[in-house]
Amino acid sequence: MSSEDSWSEPLPVQEIQEIADKVKPQLEKKVDKTYRVFVANQYRYLKNIVGASHYLIKVSVSNSTDECVHLYVVQMVIATPVDPELKKYQLNKTKDDPLEPF
Predict the structure, then answer these.
(1) CA distance 30 to 20
(2) I want to staple 57 with a disulfide (CB 3.0 to 4.6 A). Which of 49, 70, 71, 77 is the partner?
(3) pLDDT one-digit tens code per residue, 19-78
């Protein structure tokens, strides 16, 4: 099984916006930029990982263009709630770019 096989197919956004909102300040600090628009529009999750949830999230960052960022986020699954952590990101993506593991 390849690492690609472990990821879900791209899924429409439902509850993932809350996770995107929590990692937005982490991204803004790393890239030294403020995003006025930050709307998750697709995500994938890594299957069969014990102790953590892994997500790839495509986020629209502009109302006037199709500019997006791709986020790799890890959410620990433990008794005490812990905020999700932004592990990696890709800038200068578009809505047409596929959401692929990176």
Answers:
(1) 15
(2) 71
(3) 999 999 999 999 999 999 999 999 998 876 778 889 999 999 998 889 999 999 998 887
Residue type, 96: D
CA separation for the pair 39, 62 (Å, rounded) = 9
In angstroms, the CA 55 to CA 47 distance is: 10
Cα→Cα distances 22→9, 43, 46, 55, 73, Å: 23, 15, 19, 13, 10
SS3 track for the chain: CCHHHHECCCECCCCHHHHHHHHHHHHHHHHCCCCCCCEEEEEEEECCCCCEEEEEEEEECCCCCCEEEEEEEEEECCCCCCCCEEEEEEEEEECCCCCCCC
Single pTM value for the model? 0.86
Residue 62's alpha-carbon distances to 6, 23, 39, 59, 94, in angstroms, are 31, 17, 9, 9, 10
The residue type found at 101 is: P
